[in-house]
Amino acid sequence: MDFKTSNEETKTGIYLLQDGSEEPFNIRLHLAKDILTIQEQDVICVSGEPFYSSERTVTIRRQTIGGFGLSIKGGAEHKIPVVISKISKEQKAELSGLLFIGDGILQINGINVRSYRHEEVVQVLRNAGEEVTLTVSFLKRTPAFLKLPLCEDCSCVPSDQSSGTSSPLCDSGLHLNYHPNNTDTLSCSSWPMSPGLRWEKRWVDLRLIPLLHARLSQYVPGTDICRQNAFQVIAVDGVCSGVIQCPSVDECTDWLQAIASNTSALTKHNVKKINRNFPVNQQIIFMGWVDEKEQDSVQDRMYTSKFLALRGSSLFKFSAPPVTTWDWTRAEKSFTVYEIMFKILKGNELVDKRKHCFSVQTDSGEDIFFSVGLECELLLWEKAFQMATFFEVERIQCKTYACIVDSHLMGLTIDFSMGFVCFDAATKAVLWRYKFSQLKGSSDDGKSKIKFLFQNPDTKLIEAKVSVLFWFLLLAS
């Protein structure tokens, strides 16, 4: 069945990708409803059946005006070969399908120039004669600092580079050593063994990230350091997009929200399918990735990714999304919904530089801190906990807890239909009783003390009742 939602986002754009220790390079990012595609540029043969080739050989001759019609950047000083950075308009038609912006020059007339510095390559080309045979290979990951255009539609107006030095970060026009009496037009040919082959620069798939149960984060893994205008997406199988760098805060936010929206839609659809196998009182309400704050954290490992799921009466914590029924029995930890307390952290309650955080206080009084990437995700978790708590209270109807009132051991019963009853644990004598309609307010200290404000039906006065609850001493209701 095709799953569609009005919230599905489709986006495409050109950005920088930081992949490991490599220099950032240009990629095209495409977002569909269920997958994020990362593409890099490559050159493929389009004569007949398309195929890839690591190297191509092209023979060109100088023109009287414009020389070779090429400009170059880079060199061994940047740990890359010299790269073709511009192709002039005059030569573009002749060179179409043979040479491309982004081609690295590997050999010049059989001379291996892979390890040559920029100025050394310029000197070789000056002395190369009227006909030059270039062996080139398209550099898919040309460093972004070279600022090469992403298309061939750029003009090059060569300037005289016959004297002086050239910069590896600036274009060097290859019209060197031309002779005024030479009126031959530029000729290009493919390598002798493969006549007639034509090539095209295309965007090809580098990485595919399925969005179902994918993780999205701006933070350096394990830390509270937020990358500026950058994020990464990690698939459920661990495949990482690499760090995607956007040019502005707004554009980065748009991508984060779009990816989160599509991931959320896929999760909802998946939950519906899974719930067909569970009884009504064991339905999944919500699930997704969070980062858990480590209790004994060190500087480079403050957070660990966890997968939380609210299902039936329990909150489950996993190291990976549950796939089979058996997986649900192997949770790292589980908590009963009505014995924990969810709280969104704000201002001084935040424990570090992470902004979108919530805590879960367990029945033993332990606070567990979690972080999510976006405010919208935080609100989804808040709504999910509210729903889970309501459904569970509605199901059990009545629960009794041990508590201390005025230094005496008491029982506090909360009945979904009848209201609140406080009684002596030993004698069962009722100390006070109020209906839900009489509850005018309540507060707690975030740990075990809770204060109720009830309105007396006769005097209409507000009466305060304070109890210290022992969540782990559950009495028979």
From TrEMBL:
Origin superkingdom: Eukaryota
Chain ranges of the PH domain: 283-390
PROSITE patterns cross-referenced by the UniProt entry: PDZ, PH_DOMAIN
Protein name per Swiss-Prot or TrEMBL: Syntrophin, gamma 1
First-listed, main subcellular location of the protein, grouped into a coarse class: cytoplasm
Keyword flag Iron-sulfur: no
Molecular function (Gene Ontology), one example: actin binding
A Pfam family reported for this protein in Swiss-Prot or TrEMBL: PDZ
PANTHER family: GAMMA-1-SYNTROPHIN, SYNTROPHIN
Family: Belongs to the syntrophin family.
Taxonomic placement: Eukaryota, Metazoa, Chordata, Craniata, Vertebrata
Species of provenance: Cyprinus carpio carpio
PDZ domain residues: 57-140
Keywords, in A-Z order: Actin-binding, Cytoplasm, Cytoskeleton
UniProt GO cellular component terms: cytoskeleton; syntrophin complex
InterPro entries on file: PDZ (IPR001478), PDZ_sf (IPR036034), PH_domain (IPR001849), Syntrophin (IPR015482), Syntrophin_4th (IPR055108)
Location of the protein in the cell: Cytoplasm, Cytoskeleton
